[in-house]
């Protein structure tokens, strides 16, 4: 019986698999199947580049573009700054990804693989082309030769358009939503990533308004006084280092998002207070979302144990109601435990 059951399960493959995976599609030359091994590896590579972009693009736009040492590195070209080389490689890979998407098949509403280049191009134009195109514009090349701080800051803000690719990544990660551990890890990563973004904005606010403050009450001046690295307007290299500023900004956003708020890093100006209010609101929403998902994951993990105890309780009530003698009662309980271990509580008749 078990052998026949396994044969029946294996024979379900033709009914369960999508129809386009059971037939050999007719594809044109230089056309890539969307479920081919090459496309899977390429998508994972693009995912890693998007994660790199999500981390380093806001950090570069907030901390590095206005830093004097970093500006000197950028002026001498790609040989002095490894970060410029990596950004150029990312831009090139994103452009190549656009070309690959123009040659990648897709499945239409009739569950048919479309391999016609014209239809693929139209489908891509109607879908993700605009987002991919904006994210692939090499804004770094525009920095060279533009010496003004306003142009540098504008290009740094335009580079954050790369983050639009995170929308595609979020849709691809939905397939892992059924795994509790994966969802929990993903939520923690999202929490840390949002804290990183807010830390970059927190520093940008303090850095932009610091030259216009007469009393020097911003959080950057307070940090300089605490660690003994005060700002000197006549010396552009004075003040806390980039490491001190980033770690302090990240510490503030984490403490605000988690509602801890030790108070050693506090907002003093109106802009900093308004931003802190926004961070608190974001933190409350994230708290509710993360804890709601965590409770659902824990409940899902212990649902099997709860069903086992419920079924075992019914077996004991059955034994007590029918006054089954002790030897037979022990055999019934052992049989139930063995059957549960074998089937993991799955009713094979219902399946």
Automatic annotation (TrEMBL):
Keywords linked to the UniProt accession: Cell membrane, Ion channel, Ion transport, Membrane, Potassium, Potassium channel, Potassium transport, Transmembrane, Transmembrane helix, Transport, Voltage-gated channel
Membrane topology listed for this record: Multi-pass membrane protein
Keyword Ion transport: yes
A biological process from GO: regulation of membrane potential
Gene Ontology CC entries for this record: monoatomic ion channel complex; plasma membrane
Transmembrane portions of the chain: 44-65, 181-205, 274-298
Subcellular location: Cell membrane
Complex and partners: The potassium channel is probably composed of a homo- or heterotetrameric complex of pore-forming alpha subunits that can associate with modulating beta subunits. Interacts with DNAJB12 and DNAJB14; chaperones DNAJB12 and DNAJB14 promote tetramerization. Heteromultimer with KCNH6/ERG2 and KCNH7/ERG3. Interacts with ALG10B. Forms a stable complex with KCNE1 or KCNE2, and that this heteromultimerization regulates Inward rectifier potassium channel activity. Interacts with CANX. The core-glycosylated, but not the fully glycosylated form interacts with RNF207.
Protein's name according to its UniProt entry: Voltage-gated inwardly rectifying potassium channel KCNH2
Pfam families: Ion_trans
Domain annotation Ion transport: ranges: 41-303
Similarity comment: Belongs to the potassium channel family. H (Eag) (TC 1.A.1.20) subfamily. Kv11.1/KCNH2 sub-subfamily.
Gene Ontology molecular function terms on file: inward rectifier potassium channel activity
Organism: Camelus dromedarius (Dromedary)
Record InterPro entries: Ion_trans_dom, K_chnl_volt-dep_EAG/ELK/ERG, K_chnl_volt-dep_ERG, KCNH_animal-type
The keyword RNA-binding appears for this protein: no
Major location category of this protein: membrane
Domain of life: Eukaryota
Lineage: Eukaryota, Metazoa, Chordata, Craniata, Vertebrata
Reported function: Pore-forming (alpha) subunit of voltage-gated inwardly rectifying potassium channel. Characterized by unusual gating kinetics by producing relatively small outward currents during membrane depolarization and large inward currents during subsequent repolarization which reflect a rapid inactivation during depolarization and quick recovery from inactivation but slow deactivation (closing) during repolarization. Channel properties are modulated by cAMP and subunit assembly.
């Amino acid at each position: 019986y078990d052998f026949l059951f396994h044969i029946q399960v294996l024979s379900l493959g033709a009914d369960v698999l999508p129809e386009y995976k059971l037939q050999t599609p007719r594809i044109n030359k230089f056309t890539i199947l969307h479920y081919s091994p090459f496309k899977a590896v390429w998508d994972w590579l693009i995912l890693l580049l998007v994660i790199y972009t999500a981390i380093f693009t806001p950090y570069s736009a907030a901390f590095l573009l206005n830093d004097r040492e970093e500006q000197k590195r950028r002026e001498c070209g790609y040989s002095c700054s490894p970060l410029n080389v990596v950004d150029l490689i990312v831009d090139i890979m994103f452009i190549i990804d656009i070309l690959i998407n123009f040659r990648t098949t897709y499945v239409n509403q009739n569950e048919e693989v479309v391999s016609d280049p014209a239809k693929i191009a139209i489908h891509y134009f109607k879908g993700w082309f605009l987002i991919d195109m904006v994210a692939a514009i090499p804004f770094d090349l525009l920095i060279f030769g533009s010496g003004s701080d306003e142009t540098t800051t504008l290009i740094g803000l335009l580079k954050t358009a790369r983050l639009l690719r995170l929308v595609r990544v979020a849709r691809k990660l939905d397939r892992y939503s059924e795994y509790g551990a994966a969802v929990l890890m993903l939520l923690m990563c999202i929490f840390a990533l949002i804290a990183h973004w807010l830390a970059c904005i927190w520093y940008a606010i303090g850095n932009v308004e610091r030259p216009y403050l007469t009393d020097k009450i911003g959080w950057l001046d307070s940090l300089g006084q605490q660690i003994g690295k005060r700002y000197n307007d006549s010396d552009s290299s004075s003040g806390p280092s980039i490491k001190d500023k980033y770690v302090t900004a990240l510490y503030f956003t984490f403490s605000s998002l988690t509602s801890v708020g030790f108070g050693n890093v506090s907002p003093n100006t109106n802009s900093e207070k308004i931003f802190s209010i926004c961070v608190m609101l974001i933190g409350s929403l994230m708290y509710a979302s993360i804890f709601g998902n965590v409770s659902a994951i824990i409940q899902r993990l212990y649902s099997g144990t709860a069903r086992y105890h419920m079924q075992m309780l019914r077996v004991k009530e059955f034994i007590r109601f029918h006054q089954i003698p002790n030897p037979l009662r022990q055999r019934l309980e052992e049989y139930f435990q063995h059957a549960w271990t074998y089937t993991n509580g799955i009713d094979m008749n219902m399946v």
